[in-house]
Input
Amino acid sequence: MKYTTLFVIALVAIASSTQIRNRIHPLQEKSFGNIFAEIRAQIAAGGPYEQISGMIDDLENQIKGEQAEHMEMFDAANIRCKDEHDFRTNEIIEAESALKRATQHRTQCENSHGKALVDLTTNQQDQIDAQAYLALIISVRAAENELFNSNVARHKGAIAAVEGAIDIVDELTAGEATLIQLSQHSSNLLKTGIAIHQAAAYAPTVALLAQMATSDEDMFTDEGAVSRIREMLEGLIEKVNDALAQDQFAEAIQVEAFTKIKANTEANIRDLKSNEVRLTDHIDAMEQCVLEEDVIISKSKAKFERNSSLLKAAEEMCSAMADEYATATAARKEELELLVVVRGMVNKRLGGVGASVKSRDEVTDWSDDHTDVSYSAGEFDHQGGAAGDNLNLA
Output
């Protein structure tokens, strides 16, 4: 980090200003009026031309030396100003870029967080629905199985009733049973037939048994009649067994379908639970993302504001330093211009030359165009020469 750069610039500017002022102060305190008075005294005392000219030379060299030193320090400070400007500008660009990226990423995380919350709500509702559906199909299967078991019991009861009827017929044929027993079995046979929804199939057999029981003749001694009733009863057993087999086949199909549906539903519930875990983890991650991006956004804004403030301060300080340099340079230029005028007047007074003769009248110009300036003795009142500051040698 270059946080010390601005401080260095400030020190350089202050040191430069202090050093230059310390050198300028003797001239300012002494003033050109005092210097001219000393030159006038030297002339009045008959001082040699070389001594007076040397005084002017020393003063000119001092001014030029101060300017050269000030320029060197100003150039060095300008480099530091540029470095500081470039550094702060890059820091501001970096802060803006980080702020933009963090803001975009935060928006993405926030949107993803919101979508995950909606998906989680849907997921949890789907789980409730799936659990309810699973409970429903289990309940329906249990009811179907209960009905099947009841049907099985009724069919087995019907078969037992038919077999009982056959036994009675055989006993009656053998003379070992009574018609009352036959009547009871016939009644039970009809009831079981109705219970298994086979009343139409049972009707001819029950009718024949009733006819045999009420006949004036003993039909149980008739082999043809007995053979016919046995065939009809055995046919009922076959019908009941066929119906039972159909019920068992239908039950097997229902059990197979239920098993598949139950397995799929349970697998769907497991997937939903797994997705719920992933969604919960994602929501936590997106919340953390938003918090982290908020920190980056805050730091980026602080970095932008801090470096913008430092850049503004550096620019103001560097601008003030440039203004001070320009002011000091203009003042030294004016001092050198006045020295040209003084030298011309000294040459005119002691050197025996005319007013149009100029000595060392080439003045360095530190402006951009480096224009040379010359003055004659008659121009002393121009640019800062006060009325009382002329040599008054006439």
